[in-house]
Amino acid sequence: MAAALPGRCGFFVEKKKRFCKMIVGRGRRFCGEHATMEEGSSRRIVCPLDPKHTVSEDKLDKHLKKCNSREKPRPVYYVENINSGPAEGDDSLQQVSLSECSRAQLKSLLDKLKTAVTGLQCDVEDRVLSHPALQEELNNPKNGDSAHKHLKQQSSILGHLEVLGLLGRGQCFVEFGAGRGKLSHWIHEALKTRDHPESWEDLQLLLVERCSTRFKVDGKHQDVGVEFERLQVDIQHLDLSKVPLLTQKKLPLVGVGKHLCGAATDLALRCLLETPGLRQEPGPPRKRLKSSEPAGPESAVSAALPGPVPDPDPGPHPGPVQGLVVALCCHHRCEWRHYVGQRFFLQRGLGAEEFSAFCRMSSWATCGLRPTSQNLPPQDPTNQRRDDEEHEPAEETDAVNGFLSAAERKQVGRLCKRLIDGGRLHFLRTRGFDSKLSRYVDSHVTLENVLLTAVPSSSSSSS
To answer: What global pTM score does this model have?
Structure first.
């Protein structure tokens, strides 16, 4: 490039061998980042709030008042670590690196895994569904392979909501890890195309995402009465009982999520079912032990772990939780402190150390059929995941080379995932929900193709 493009920055980027392409202000030659090249311009310094950008030194005070990285007032629904789990469950000291394990240690872990999954009622059924609301978009030839895969997943999730009786009016859908909000968009479209309502006053869609997201689709819905609200907050700190949108109409809640990574699934379950101020459907009372009846191992474990805290606030609360449909993924990113199945693990003689190891091994389910990174050239493009979900795999260079075949690693990874999910099923059942796991799409669509569904026991039995 011999010269800068018209209206673009005149700074030559030596590393890229071209001129900067940023747009410049009227009468300026350089963009804001390279404004120091202008004669008489003030010196640019690194922003003290975010070192990723710079600011003119003489405008620092003005910039600090509007910088996107400034500390903002916390909303009323932000409660520090409300969904984090027990403080004593911190697993910072129990992290396990498979590359440091000996073969004897690995064999011991595999023996514990096989013992723990023996008799485990955690079958995964094949149940690929679809919903007519997405059929036109699925047949649209303009959609590429990646878009088509996401549409298939969204269509199947809506199909499961339909079968469970959760896709209807008079509810608030809470989408955890919403991203751009495509799943909520299709829920809205499914209900819109079916009923052709004149009013949407009995439907709410609450999108929860901790990061700022570009190209959000929920901002494009301008229908009268449709309530789309986005909360930029980590699920770990979200108190649903204090969200104004939910306390106004008290509609029943339905939790949804598409590829809710690792610990985010556990945080979402705690957010829905353990938030102190969140009103739940009344369930059957737990059986109480007689004074002469000795406490078993399960009651001892229950005493060791804190249960839900009773609600001290008599104020307005959202409606009860009607169910949830969440696509699982990235079990290697789970954390013991947040994990809802701690009691389930402890009952099987397992603890934080085994949990951490099984989390690491769970990644073998999606990478066990290819050689480990030691067997590939440094720049081999096949040393990447192929599921288009952009979730990083866990470590793969470990002591299992020559100890387990690729097929055996994949099987072990699947068992680890099912054991971790078994703890989630156990948690939901103790909260009065009927829950199960389903393969909601084919593995060629995504390797993370397991869906967790749950509805209150009374509802499922009546249906």
So the answer is: 0.76
